[in-house]
Protein backbone atom coordinates (compact mmCIF):
# COMPACT_ATOMS: atom_id res chain seq x y z
CA UNK A 1 0.00 0.00 0.00
CA UNK A 2 0.98 3.63 -0.37
CA UNK A 3 0.16 5.50 2.82
CA UNK A 4 0.06 9.26 3.33
CA UNK A 5 1.09 10.70 6.68
CA UNK A 6 0.41 14.16 8.13
CA UNK A 7 0.75 16.02 11.42
CA UNK A 8 -1.82 18.78 12.10
CA UNK A 9 -2.56 21.40 14.74
CA UNK A 10 -0.19 22.63 17.42
CA UNK A 11 3.02 20.65 17.41
CA UNK A 12 3.80 18.36 20.28
CA UNK A 13 6.84 16.45 21.57
CA UNK A 14 6.61 12.87 20.27
CA UNK A 15 5.30 13.57 16.76
CA UNK A 16 8.57 12.45 15.21
CA UNK A 17 8.52 9.29 17.30
CA UNK A 18 5.10 8.41 15.83
CA UNK A 19 6.28 9.12 12.27
CA UNK A 20 9.38 6.96 12.78
CA UNK A 21 7.36 4.06 14.21
CA UNK A 22 4.74 4.18 11.44
CA UNK A 23 7.38 4.19 8.72
CA UNK A 24 9.65 1.58 10.31
CA UNK A 25 6.92 -0.96 10.99
CA UNK A 26 5.03 -0.13 7.81
CA UNK A 27 8.07 -0.56 5.61
CA UNK A 28 9.88 -3.41 7.28
CA UNK A 29 6.96 -5.56 8.44
CA UNK A 30 4.09 -4.72 6.07
CA UNK A 31 6.04 -3.69 2.96
CA UNK A 32 4.16 -0.37 2.54
CA UNK A 33 5.54 2.80 1.08
CA UNK A 34 4.88 6.29 2.45
CA UNK A 35 4.32 9.82 1.28
CA UNK A 36 4.78 12.71 3.69
CA UNK A 37 2.26 15.54 3.52
CA UNK A 38 3.63 18.89 4.66
CA UNK A 39 2.08 21.25 7.20
CA UNK A 40 -1.04 19.39 8.25
CA UNK A 41 -4.07 19.51 5.97
CA UNK A 42 -2.35 22.10 3.79
CA UNK A 43 -0.29 19.21 2.40
CA UNK A 44 -3.11 17.22 0.79
CA UNK A 45 -5.03 20.42 -0.02
CA UNK A 46 -2.16 21.83 -2.07
CA UNK A 47 -0.32 18.59 -2.88
CA UNK A 48 2.67 19.67 -0.81
CA UNK A 49 4.54 16.45 -0.24
CA UNK A 50 7.94 15.10 0.74
CA UNK A 51 9.59 11.71 0.39
CA UNK A 52 9.15 9.64 3.51
CA UNK A 53 11.05 6.40 4.01
CA UNK A 54 13.18 4.74 6.67
CA UNK A 55 16.09 6.95 5.61
CA UNK A 56 14.20 10.18 6.42
CA UNK A 57 13.19 8.90 9.85
CA UNK A 58 16.64 7.91 11.13
CA UNK A 59 17.66 9.76 14.29
CA UNK A 60 14.36 11.62 14.81
CA UNK A 61 13.06 9.69 17.84
CA UNK A 62 14.24 12.23 20.47
CA UNK A 63 13.70 15.30 18.31
CA UNK A 64 10.91 17.78 19.14
CA UNK A 65 8.60 19.27 16.53
CA UNK A 66 7.66 17.38 13.39
CA UNK A 67 9.74 16.72 10.30
CA UNK A 68 6.50 17.03 8.28
CA UNK A 69 5.66 20.51 9.56
CA UNK A 70 2.24 21.43 10.90
CA UNK A 71 -0.50 24.03 10.50
CA UNK A 72 -4.02 24.73 11.61
CA UNK A 73 -5.33 24.72 8.03
CA UNK A 74 -8.90 23.42 8.01
CA UNK A 75 -10.05 21.98 4.65
CA UNK A 76 -13.66 22.00 5.84
CA UNK A 77 -13.43 25.83 5.86
CA UNK A 78 -12.22 25.93 2.25
CA UNK A 79 -14.82 25.81 -0.53
CA UNK A 80 -14.78 22.21 -1.81
CA UNK A 81 -11.80 21.54 0.47
CA UNK A 82 -12.68 18.02 1.57
CA UNK A 83 -13.36 16.89 -2.01
CA UNK A 84 -10.07 18.43 -3.07
CA UNK A 85 -8.21 16.53 -0.36
CA UNK A 86 -9.85 13.28 -1.47
CA UNK A 87 -9.03 13.93 -5.13
CA UNK A 88 -5.43 14.90 -4.36
CA UNK A 89 -4.87 11.76 -2.31
CA UNK A 90 -6.10 9.73 -5.25
CA UNK A 91 -3.92 11.71 -7.65
CA UNK A 92 -0.90 11.00 -5.43
CA UNK A 93 -1.71 7.28 -5.55
CA UNK A 94 -2.33 7.25 -1.80
CA UNK A 95 -4.49 4.31 -0.62
CA UNK A 96 -4.84 5.37 3.00
CA UNK A 97 -3.99 8.27 5.26
CA UNK A 98 -2.66 8.38 8.82
CA UNK A 99 -3.54 11.71 10.45
CA UNK A 100 -1.73 12.59 13.66
CA UNK A 101 -3.47 15.40 15.49
CA UNK A 102 -5.85 16.69 18.11
CA UNK A 103 -9.55 17.40 18.12
CA UNK A 104 -9.48 19.63 15.03
CA UNK A 105 -7.24 17.47 12.82
CA UNK A 106 -9.10 14.33 13.80
CA UNK A 107 -12.43 16.07 13.20
CA UNK A 108 -11.41 16.52 9.57
CA UNK A 109 -10.20 12.90 9.50
CA UNK A 110 -13.64 11.82 10.72
CA UNK A 111 -15.33 13.71 7.87
CA UNK A 112 -12.94 12.25 5.30
CA UNK A 113 -13.52 8.72 6.56
CA UNK A 114 -17.26 9.30 6.22
CA UNK A 115 -16.59 10.42 2.64
CA UNK A 116 -14.97 7.07 1.86
CA UNK A 117 -11.26 7.78 2.36
CA UNK A 118 -9.38 5.15 4.39
CA UNK A 119 -8.16 7.16 7.40
CA UNK A 120 -6.65 6.16 10.73
CA UNK A 121 -6.04 8.74 13.45
CA UNK A 122 -3.35 9.09 16.10
CA UNK A 123 -4.23 11.27 19.12
CA UNK A 124 -1.88 14.15 19.82
CA UNK A 125 -2.09 17.13 22.13
CA UNK A 126 -0.10 18.41 25.08
CA UNK A 127 -3.47 19.40 26.58
CA UNK A 128 -4.54 15.75 27.15
CA UNK A 129 -8.13 16.73 26.36
CA UNK A 130 -9.04 14.13 23.73
CA UNK A 131 -11.75 11.67 24.62
CA UNK A 132 -11.45 7.88 24.31
CA UNK A 133 -7.75 7.75 25.21
CA UNK A 134 -6.46 7.82 28.78
CA UNK A 135 -3.48 9.96 27.78
CA UNK A 136 -2.15 11.72 24.69
CA UNK A 137 1.57 11.85 24.01
CA UNK A 138 3.16 15.25 24.62
CA UNK A 139 1.23 15.74 27.85
CA UNK A 140 3.89 14.13 30.04
CA UNK A 141 6.59 16.30 28.47
CA UNK A 142 4.55 19.49 28.98
CA UNK A 143 3.86 18.57 32.62
CA UNK A 144 7.53 17.78 33.19
CA UNK A 145 8.62 21.14 31.76
CA UNK A 146 5.99 23.04 33.77
CA UNK A 147 6.90 21.17 36.97
CA UNK A 148 10.55 22.03 36.57
CA UNK A 149 9.59 25.68 36.06
CA UNK A 150 7.44 25.64 39.23
CA UNK A 151 10.31 24.09 41.22
CA UNK A 152 12.50 26.98 40.11
CA UNK A 153 9.82 29.56 40.90
CA UNK A 154 9.61 28.27 44.49
CA UNK A 155 13.16 29.30 45.33
CA UNK A 156 12.97 32.79 43.87
CA UNK A 157 9.49 33.32 45.34
CA UNK A 158 10.93 32.40 48.75
CA UNK A 159 13.89 34.78 48.44
CA UNK A 160 11.67 37.76 47.65
CA UNK A 161 8.55 36.85 49.68
CA UNK A 162 6.53 37.15 46.49
CA UNK A 163 3.52 35.53 44.93
CA UNK A 164 4.64 33.89 41.72
CA UNK A 165 2.01 33.02 39.16
CA UNK A 166 2.78 30.40 36.56
CA UNK A 167 0.49 30.46 33.51
CA UNK A 168 0.43 27.20 31.59
CA UNK A 169 -1.35 26.07 28.41
CA UNK A 170 -4.87 24.67 28.39
CA UNK A 171 -7.72 26.54 26.72
CA UNK A 172 -10.64 24.44 27.80
CA UNK A 173 -9.06 21.70 29.91
CA UNK A 174 -6.84 22.20 32.93
CA UNK A 175 -4.90 18.93 32.84
CA UNK A 176 -1.46 20.54 32.54
CA UNK A 177 -2.20 23.00 35.35
CA UNK A 178 -3.63 20.25 37.55
CA UNK A 179 -0.76 17.82 37.12
CA UNK A 180 2.08 20.34 37.12
CA UNK A 181 0.49 22.17 40.04
CA UNK A 182 0.21 18.95 42.05
CA UNK A 183 3.71 17.78 41.13
CA UNK A 184 5.19 21.21 41.82
CA UNK A 185 3.41 21.81 45.12
CA UNK A 186 1.46 24.92 44.05
CA UNK A 187 -0.80 26.35 46.73
CA UNK A 188 -3.51 27.41 44.26
CA UNK A 189 -4.38 25.74 40.94
CA UNK A 190 -6.87 27.43 38.63
CA UNK A 191 -8.42 25.61 35.68
CA UNK A 192 -10.98 26.46 32.97
CA UNK A 193 -13.43 23.88 34.30
CA UNK A 194 -13.81 25.74 37.58
CA UNK A 195 -14.29 29.52 37.32
CA UNK A 196 -12.58 31.03 40.34
CA UNK A 197 -13.26 33.65 42.96
CA UNK A 198 -10.47 36.19 43.49
CA UNK A 199 -11.23 36.44 47.20
CA UNK A 200 -10.65 32.66 47.59
CA UNK A 201 -7.35 32.92 45.72
CA UNK A 202 -6.21 35.81 47.94
CA UNK A 203 -7.23 33.90 51.07
CA UNK A 204 -5.02 30.96 50.00
CA UNK A 205 -2.17 33.36 49.26
CA UNK A 206 -2.45 35.06 52.67
CA UNK A 207 -2.71 31.73 54.45
CA UNK A 208 0.50 30.51 52.80
CA UNK A 209 2.38 33.62 53.91
CA UNK A 210 0.91 33.26 57.40
CA UNK A 211 2.53 29.80 57.53
CA UNK A 212 5.88 31.37 56.67
CA UNK A 213 6.01 30.43 52.98
CA UNK A 214 5.67 32.33 49.75
CA UNK A 215 2.90 31.48 47.33
CA UNK A 216 2.87 29.76 43.94
CA UNK A 217 -0.30 30.03 41.86
CA UNK A 218 -0.60 27.83 38.77
CA UNK A 219 -3.21 28.98 36.27
CA UNK A 220 -4.32 27.50 32.97
CA UNK A 221 -4.52 30.07 30.15
CA UNK A 222 -8.26 29.39 29.75
CA UNK A 223 -9.17 29.82 33.44
CA UNK A 224 -11.73 32.54 34.09
CA UNK A 225 -13.22 34.53 36.91
CA UNK A 226 -16.42 33.27 38.48
CA UNK A 227 -18.33 36.07 36.75
CA UNK A 228 -17.43 34.29 33.51
CA UNK A 229 -15.07 36.79 31.88
CA UNK A 230 -12.56 35.08 29.56
CA UNK A 231 -9.12 36.68 29.49
CA UNK A 232 -8.26 37.14 25.85
CA UNK A 233 -5.41 39.26 24.62
CA UNK A 234 -6.80 39.64 21.14
CA UNK A 235 -10.05 38.68 19.49
CA UNK A 236 -8.31 37.13 16.47
CA UNK A 237 -9.62 33.63 15.72
CA UNK A 238 -7.76 30.82 13.95
CA UNK A 239 -9.24 28.64 11.17
CA UNK A 240 -10.97 26.46 13.80
CA UNK A 241 -12.54 29.50 15.51
CA UNK A 242 -10.32 29.46 18.62
CA UNK A 243 -9.44 32.78 20.25
CA UNK A 244 -5.77 33.35 20.98
CA UNK A 245 -5.74 33.39 24.74
CA UNK A 246 -3.41 35.06 27.18
CA UNK A 247 -3.50 37.47 30.03
CA UNK A 248 -5.10 35.61 32.92
CA UNK A 249 -1.72 35.48 34.72
CA UNK A 250 -1.31 39.26 34.47
CA UNK A 251 -4.87 39.79 35.65
CA UNK A 252 -4.15 37.65 38.71
CA UNK A 253 -0.90 39.50 39.33
CA UNK A 254 -2.67 42.87 39.40
CA UNK A 255 -5.57 41.67 41.52
CA UNK A 256 -3.47 39.75 44.05
CA UNK A 257 -1.12 42.71 44.53
CA UNK A 258 -4.04 45.10 44.97
CA UNK A 259 -5.97 42.86 47.34
CA UNK A 260 -3.18 41.34 49.48
CA UNK A 261 -0.50 44.01 49.29
CA UNK A 262 2.01 41.29 48.37
CA UNK A 263 4.36 41.70 45.44
CA UNK A 264 3.39 39.38 42.58
CA UNK A 265 5.06 38.38 39.31
CA UNK A 266 3.85 36.27 36.40
CA UNK A 267 5.67 33.71 34.28
CA UNK A 268 3.90 32.65 31.10
CA UNK A 269 5.41 29.34 30.01
CA UNK A 270 3.82 29.39 26.56
CA UNK A 271 5.37 27.39 23.76
CA UNK A 272 8.31 26.23 25.88
CA UNK A 273 5.83 23.54 27.00
CA UNK A 274 5.52 22.28 23.44
CA UNK A 275 9.10 22.46 22.25
CA UNK A 276 12.10 20.20 22.59
CA UNK A 277 12.68 16.56 23.26
CA UNK A 278 9.88 14.28 24.50
CA UNK A 279 10.17 12.49 27.84
CA UNK A 280 10.84 8.75 27.83
CA UNK A 281 7.15 8.14 28.63
CA UNK A 282 6.04 10.16 25.60
CA UNK A 283 8.60 8.48 23.33
CA UNK A 284 7.26 5.06 24.32
CA UNK A 285 3.59 6.06 24.01
CA UNK A 286 4.15 7.77 20.65
CA UNK A 287 6.08 4.77 19.35
CA UNK A 288 3.34 2.36 20.43
CA UNK A 289 0.67 4.56 18.80
CA UNK A 290 2.66 4.59 15.54
CA UNK A 291 3.13 0.84 15.47
CA UNK A 292 -0.56 0.21 16.14
CA UNK A 293 -1.76 2.87 13.68
CA UNK A 294 0.05 1.26 10.76
CA UNK A 295 -1.23 -2.16 11.85
CA UNK A 296 -4.78 -0.75 11.79
CA UNK A 297 -4.30 0.55 8.25
CA UNK A 298 -2.88 -2.81 7.19
CA UNK A 299 -5.96 -4.54 8.64
CA UNK A 300 -8.14 -2.36 6.40
CA UNK A 301 -9.53 -0.27 9.27
CA UNK A 302 -10.86 3.21 8.62
CA UNK A 303 -12.51 5.89 10.75
CA UNK A 304 -10.69 4.65 13.83
CA UNK A 305 -8.12 6.14 16.16
CA UNK A 306 -5.54 4.31 18.23
CA UNK A 307 -5.95 4.98 21.94
CA UNK A 308 -4.40 4.10 25.27
CA UNK A 309 -6.82 2.39 27.62
CA UNK A 310 -5.14 1.15 30.77
CA UNK A 311 -1.88 -0.22 29.41
CA UNK A 312 -3.32 -1.51 26.14
CA UNK A 313 -3.41 0.26 22.78
CA UNK A 314 -6.89 -0.19 21.32
CA UNK A 315 -8.82 1.05 18.29
CA UNK A 316 -11.78 3.36 18.90
CA UNK A 317 -14.13 5.08 16.44
CA UNK A 318 -12.75 8.51 15.49
CA UNK A 319 -16.18 9.93 16.21
CA UNK A 320 -15.98 8.79 19.81
CA UNK A 321 -12.63 10.51 20.26
CA UNK A 322 -13.79 13.83 18.85
CA UNK A 323 -17.33 13.90 20.24
CA UNK A 324 -16.48 15.89 23.35
CA UNK A 325 -13.42 17.28 25.10
CA UNK A 326 -12.07 15.34 28.05
CA UNK A 327 -12.04 17.90 30.84
CA UNK A 328 -10.90 17.65 34.46
CA UNK A 329 -13.70 16.05 36.52
CA UNK A 330 -14.63 17.67 39.87
CA UNK A 331 -13.26 14.73 41.88
CA UNK A 332 -9.80 15.14 40.34
CA UNK A 333 -9.83 18.85 41.19
CA UNK A 334 -10.93 18.00 44.74
CA UNK A 335 -7.75 15.91 45.15
CA UNK A 336 -5.68 19.01 44.41
CA UNK A 337 -7.77 21.33 46.61
CA UNK A 338 -6.48 19.48 49.68
CA UNK A 339 -3.18 21.32 49.15
CA UNK A 340 -4.54 24.82 48.57
CA UNK A 341 -3.89 27.58 51.13
O1 LIG B 1 -3.81 22.72 21.54
C1 LIG B 1 -2.52 22.77 21.95
C2 LIG B 1 -2.11 24.15 22.37
O2 LIG B 1 -0.78 24.07 22.78
C3 LIG B 1 -2.98 24.81 23.45
O3 LIG B 1 -2.67 24.42 24.76
C4 LIG B 1 -2.75 26.27 23.22
O4 LIG B 1 -3.84 27.04 23.68
C5 LIG B 1 -2.63 26.33 21.73
O5 LIG B 1 -2.17 25.07 21.30
C6 LIG B 1 -1.71 27.43 21.24
O6 LIG B 1 -1.65 27.35 19.87
P1 LIG B 1 -0.79 28.23 18.86
O7 LIG B 1 0.14 27.27 18.20
O8 LIG B 1 -1.75 28.79 17.91
O9 LIG B 1 -0.06 29.24 19.65
Give structural notes.
- The longest helix is centred in the middle third of the chain and has 22 residues, at 139-160.
- The protein is built from 12 helices and 13 strands.
- The model is unreliable at 230-235 (pLDDT under 50).
- It is 40% helix and 20% strand.
- Strand 12 (304-309) and strand 13 form a beta hairpin.
- The protein is an alpha/beta fold.
- It folds into 2 domains: 2-137 and 278-322, Rossmann fold (3-Layer(aba) Sandwich), CATH 3.40.50; 139-275, Phosphofructokinase domain (Rossmann fold, 3-Layer(aba) Sandwich).
- The strands form 3 sheets. It has a 7-stranded mixed β-sheet, sandwiched between helices. Strands 7-8-6-11 form a 4-stranded parallel β-sheet, with helices on both faces.
- The structure holds 6-O-phosphono-beta-D-fructofuranose.
- 6-O-phosphono-beta-D-fructofuranose is lined by residues 10, 102, 125-127, 169-171, 221, 274.
Brief overview:
The protein has helices at 15-28, 42-46, 54-57, 81-91, 103-114, 139-160, 175-184, 198-210, 248-260, 280-298, 318-323, 330-337, and strands spanning 2-7, 33-37, 49-52, 96-101, 119-123, 163-168, 188-190, 215-220, 232-237, 243-245, 264-268, 304-309, 312-317.
Question: Helices, strands, pairings?
Answer:
Blueprint: E1 2-7, H1 15-28, E2 33-37, H2 42-46, E3 49-52, H3 54-57, H4 81-91, E4 96-101, H5 103-114, E5 119-123, H6 139-160, E6 163-168, H7 175-184, E7 188-190, H8 198-210, E8 215-220, E9 232-237, E10 243-245, H9 248-260, E11 264-268, H10 280-298, E12 304-309, E13 312-317, H11 318-323, H12 330-337
Parallel strand pairs: 1-2, 1-4, 4-5, 5-12, 6-8, 6-11, 7-8
Antiparallel strand pairs: 2-3, 9-10, 12-13
Helix pairs in contact: 1-10, 6-7, 8-9
The structure holds 6-O-phosphono-beta-D-fructofuranose.
Amino acid sequence: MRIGLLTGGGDCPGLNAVIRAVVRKGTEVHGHEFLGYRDGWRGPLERQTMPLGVEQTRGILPRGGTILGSSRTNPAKVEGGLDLVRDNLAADGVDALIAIGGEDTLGVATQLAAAGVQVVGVPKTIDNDLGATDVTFGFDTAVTIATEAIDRLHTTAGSHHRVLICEVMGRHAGWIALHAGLAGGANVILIPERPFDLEDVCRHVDSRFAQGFSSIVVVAEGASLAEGQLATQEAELDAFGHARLGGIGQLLEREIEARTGREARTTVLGHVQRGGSPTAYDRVLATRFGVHAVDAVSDGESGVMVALQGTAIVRVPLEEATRELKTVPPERYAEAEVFFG
